[in-house]
Design goal:
The complex is a heterodimer. Chain A has a single domain, classed as 3-Layer(aba) Sandwich (Rossmann fold). The longest helix of chain A has 18 residues. By secondary structure, chain A is α/β, with parallel strands linked by helices. Chain A has 9 helices and 10 strands. In chain A, helix 5 packs across helix 6, helix 6 runs parallel beside helix 7 and helix 7 packs parallel to helix 8. Chain B is mainly alpha-helical. Chain B is globular and about 65 Å long. Chain B starts with a helix and ends with a helix. The chains are: A alpha/beta, B mainly alpha.
């Protein structure tokens, strides 16, 4: 299933291009993600990873190219159908992006409450069950997000992302800012959730340990272009000079840090 | 080397910027209003905004109104007594409060209190990805955050102005009877003889317009803020300054519309 030449990928991106002013952030990206697999996109800060996710989510409008989900070009869908597609995508934001005016359980049950799909009492119970899935005690539900540690906020963010049982999940640097052990725990939860839901996942990260743990396949983004794609297990011995320099964190190599733009 | 055309270019840039901003605000406001007509509706968000707008602004608006009514009575007495026109004071107080000072002062106070808070809240939600997160939870942020606040502004500020009108007249009444030696029943009789329904309605229509402008400026600047803490700070400043200027400008336009013959 993880062969990119599979006929019907869940997500098919072709020629995706986006520039902010004179700076080209994405430069003709072609990427396929097969259904039920996890793709990890690695790359340095400012290489366009977040912009790629935001383009797929429709938060940023690309300048050119196409993004197909289940064979339908979402960039050209009418707004209402586009919202239906988005409703099947869950996302874990880098800093959690939890709603600080709501309690933890209201965050987790937000999608249910906002669409009036469940009464508050029922939504609360379901939030408790979802919190348990990410290893949190349901009593955490009554706290406000600001009272939680970073690792717990990530768990709540994950709970909120999976609450609607989406068939596509996005993870924006899921382990950034966590200690290595908590990072491994979160990675484990991510793998569990993706497996249980049977979701297709895209994670962006620059944490190599995390990339090999959660990814089936991996791709490297550099200056807006995909410079390498392959199995995530090959990341540390890919034979590609850029990937090698990045994964081993070497100062010297084909990638030179830009100090000005 | 200074190019004399730089000055011309600056005027052009400024004009283009102003036109662009006006268009953006108008589109933003129209989008916000259009969401009031299409379900789902977020009644809870509307009620929260309404309470924040009206109930928590009561003390500030009440104090402002009492003191301004009192000051008008005092000032017009010192002026009018020279011409023996003291009997006009009750009318001066009630007309200036109901037509002008009630709506304008309440508007300015609410702009400082609620407009600023709105811009800061939405701005923080923007820079911490919470607004993007709404989009991934099948919730349109314009519908969830902006539309309820616009409606709350239109409804809350007229309610506040009713209170401000009554307390402003009461302030004038207190000073006139307790300090300036007016006959209480005579003062009240001339107050009600002079006041017409049209005055009250015009004042409330102004108030509704100001409420809309305050909410629009708070939401627009907060929603579009960028660049972290500093961006939120400048969004808050812009929201209050823009709302205050617009209140005074629209005050003139509406006065021309309602009262100029």
């Amino acid at each position: 299933m993880s062969d990119p030449s599979t006929n019907d990928p869940k997500i098919r991106i072709r020629g995706l291009t986006k520039a902010f002013g004179t700076k080209t952030v994405l430069d003709g990206i072609d990427l396929d993600v097969a259904a039920g697999t996890s793709m990890v996109v690695i790359g340095g800060s400012g290489s366009g990873k977040s912009v790629l996710l935001k383009c797929i989510l429709g938060l940023i409008e690309p300048d050119a190219g196409s993004i197909e989900i289940d064979g339908r070009d979402v960039l050209r869908l009418p707004r209402q159908e586009r919202e239906q597609v988005n409703a099947r995508i869950g996302m874990l934001f880098q800093a959690g992006a939890l709603f600080d005016s709501l309690t933890v359980w209201e965050n987790v049950a937000f999608g249910l409450l906002a669409q009036h799909k469940a009464a508050r009492a029922e939504a609360r119970q379901r939030a408790g069950a979802i919190l348990a899935q990410v290893g949190l005690d349901p009593s955490v539900g009554d706290l406000s997000p600001a009272e939680l540690s970073g690792g717990m906020q990530k768990r709540v963010g994950l709970a909120r992302a999976i609450a609607a049982q989406p068939d596509i999940l996005f993870f924006d640097e899921p382990t950034t800012g966590l200690d290595p052990i908590m990072g491994a725990v979160i990675d484990g939860l991510i793998v569990d959730c993706v497996k249980r839901l049977g979701s297709t996942a895209i994670a962006i990260t620059h944490d190599m340990a995390s990339a090999t743990r959660i990814g089936d396949r991996a791709a490297m983004l550099f200056r807006g272009k995909l410079v390498w794609q392959g199995p995530a297990a090959d990341l540390l011995h890919s034979g590609n000079e850029m990937v090698d320099q990045f994964t081993h964190g070497r100062r010297d190599g084909p990638i030179q840090m830009e100090l000005r733009r | 080397m200074i190019d004399p055309l730089d000055a011309v270019a600056a005027v052009g840039r400024g004009t283009l910027g102003a036109v662009r901003a006006t268009g953006a605000v108008a589109l933003f406001g129209a989008a916000g209003l259009s969401h009031l007509l299409r379900p789902p509706f977020y009644g809870r968000m509307f009620l929260l905004a309404l309470v924040e707008f009206s109930y928590f602004s009561l003390p500030v608006v009440a104090l402002t109104a009492v003191f301004s009514g009192a000051v008008i009575a005092l000032q017009s007495f010192t002026g009018f007594s020279r011409f023996g026109a003291e009997s006009a004071i009750a009318g001066i107080v009630v007309l200036s409060v109901v037509r002008e000072l009630g709506p304008v002062l309440a508007g300015l106070m609410v702009a400082g209190r609620v407009g600023a808070a709105m811009a800061a809240e939405l701005g923080t939600m923007r820079v911490t990805d919470q607004i993007d997160a709404l989009g991934t939870l099948s919730t349109n942020p314009m519908k969830y955050l902006v539309a309820p606040r616009l409606l709350a502004g239109v409804i809350a500020v007229p309610l506040l102005v009713v209170v401000a009108d009554i307390l402003g007249v009461a302030g004038g009444f207190l000073v006139s009877t307790a300090k300036l030696g007016f006959n209480p029943s005579g003062y009240l009789t001339s107050t009600f003889n002079i006041l017409t329904t049209a005055d009250v309605v015009a004042g409330l229509a102004q108030a509704a317009t100001f409420g809309f402008l305050i909410a629009l400026m708070g939401c627009y600047h907060g929603y579009n803020s960028k660049g972290g803490a500093q961006g939120v700070g400048s969004a808050t400043t812009s929201a209050v300054v823009a709302a205050s200027i617009l209140i005074l400008a629209f005050d003139y336009v509406l006065t021309e519309l309602f009262f100029a013959r």
